[in-house]
Structures are given as structure tokens and as C-alpha cells.
Amino acid sequence: MAVFTPLTETQVADFLAQFDAGSLVSLEGVPAGTENSTFFVTTDRRELVLTLFEQGEHEELPFFVDLLDYLDEHRLPVPGPLHDRDGVALHSLAGKPALLFPRLPGRHPRHPNLAQCRALGDALGHMHKVSQRFPGHRPNPRDLHWLLPMHHKVLVYLSPEDQTLMKDEVETYQGFFGDAPALPQGALHGDLFRDNTLFEGDRLGGLIDFYNGCTGDLLFDLAIVINDWATEPDGRLNVERHDALLGAYQVRRPLTAAERDAWPMMLRMTALRYWLSRLLVVFVDPPAHDLTPHDPEQFRSILLARLEHGALPLPEVNA
């Protein structure tokens, strides 16, 4: 259960009174998620999502508000937070930071089809194109600078073969990205897995859960997406989904020559990023709540597949 801080209807009704969003009709806790308390709120005028922030750096929440406001203004399918009658979005409820969002339509695609991959690629390309002008700044908390110190914390829990694999990979990334040309920068989602999207059939209803949002290499964001959306259970890439997503993405934002050169290495580095972060949750820093951690083995398999088979050819952009 992901409602870590229960709320009463009276608390939520009083909270809603600060907004021009109608009167409370019903309140429902959402049994999903791993970090925050989430509620579906129905008023006499609309469907909303209320989030209480249980963990993380609360001083960074204004960055997320500004990013969602910015993307909403540029007509991306994101849940732009509601602002109260004084123009304030971020509030406190039950002693926790709280934000209110519109409830976007759709469901998570467990097995995305090609139309859904194209819709996501189009939206992500649009987002990355406009996000290059986003004025906010939050360094990527899971990039190479994080991998360097953090991978040492899990080595003792790994087999000798996996210790060597992880150490060799991190050393390889240092050498490659240390000498590589600078890559295009912008605001990232940072965790755009299938369960952070909503679809109604083939139509993308929303990109959600921006709490890993940051600024950094746009290619990092794209590699996370491909490693989830276009990967088979054995870790190998699916050509059709890969090409559908990347083809639609590049209509919006063609990759640069430097990004094309860095692409195979970025696929490997983002696979290791999730292998490592999941190992840390299992062995070093378990969740504060009674939740089942994600399996690290999934991304170890993806990394091994990227090493064995390499990256697929990138789709060309029609002139």
C-alpha cells in the first residue's frame, strides 16, 4: 500500500477550499508507487490527484513545479499542477509537502504496440526540443558522477565476475565520456518507464511522475526509454519498437553526430544505472516502507545484452 500518510475527507475538503477546483465528492487512496502518498480526489467539477511527498529533498520540489508548469504551457501531455487562488501550487498537508494535479486519462501499457511507441517518441522528442530552453537547473542525480562513488557500495554483494563487469564498465564510461564532445542539454524526465505513461488505446494521455526530473544530457533520457520500451525479456532490443520510437522522436529532434557516436555507450551506462540503483535498494538502503524492491537482475541482463549484441542502427531522418 502506498498511502503512508492517511488523510480524512475533512482534511482534504479544507485543502481544496484554497483552490478553484470544486467541492469534495470522494477520496480514494492509490495503492501504487514506492515513495509518496497518492490519492484520487473527485470534486463536483473534476477528477484530481493529490500527492503528499514522504521522501526526497523537499527543497527541490519547486524545480518540479516549474518544470511541469513549463511543459504544460508548451502543450505537452503532463499534469500541470493546480495553483491556488493566490497563484501558489506547493502547499503543506498533514505536515507533508503537497501538490494537486489534474487526473490524466489512460492506463499504463504493459506491452506497448508500435503506435504507442511512435506516440511516446513524438512526445519525448517534442519535450526534449522545448526543454532545451527551460531556465531551471537541477543536476542529474544518477549520471556518471553518481556511478563513480556509488558502485563501490555494492561490490561486496556481487560475484567476482559481476564485480569485474561493473568496475570495467564504470572505467569504460569514464574514458569515453571524459573525452567525448559535449552532448545537447535540457530538462529530462529521468525515469520514463511504461508505468510513468498513460494511454487510451493508442493515444498518449499523459507523462507522469516527474520526481526524477533534472537537467542534463537529453540522450540519457532517451536511452532509459529505449532500454525499457524496446527491450525483450531476454534483454535484447526489439527492432520494430526501437525504430518506431526513435523514428518518431527524430522527426521532432534529430540526434546530433556526437549523440549518434555516444548512443551505444549511453545504452550501456543507463542499464548499469538501474542495475546499480536496484542493488543499492536491496543491499544498502532498503525502502523506509514495507515494499518489494525491483529485481536488479533485469538490468544486469540488459547490460549483458548491450555488451554482446551492441546497439541497433539508428533510424535515419528523412530530409
Automatic annotation (TrEMBL):
GO BP terms in the entry: threonine biosynthetic process
Molecular function, one GO term: homoserine kinase activity
Record keyword Isomerase present: no
EC number: 2.7.1.39
Key words, A-Z: Amino-acid biosynthesis, ATP-binding, Kinase, Nucleotide-binding, Threonine biosynthesis, Transferase
Reactions catalysed according to its record: L-homoserine + ATP = O-phospho-L-homoserine + ADP + H(+)
Pfam families: APH
CDD domains, per the entry: HomoserineK_II
Domain (Aminoglycoside phosphotransferase) ranges: 27-255
Pathway annotation from the record: Amino-acid biosynthesis; L-threonine biosynthesis; L-threonine from L-aspartate: step 4/5
Keyword DNA-binding recorded: no
SUPFAM superfamilies per UniProt: Protein kinase-like (PK-like)
Record-linked InterPro entries: Aminoglycoside_PTrfase, Homoserine_kinase_II, Kinase-like_dom_sf, Pseudomonas-type_ThrB
Similarity remark: Belongs to the pseudomonas-type ThrB family.
Protein name per UniProt: Homoserine kinase
Protein's gene: thrB
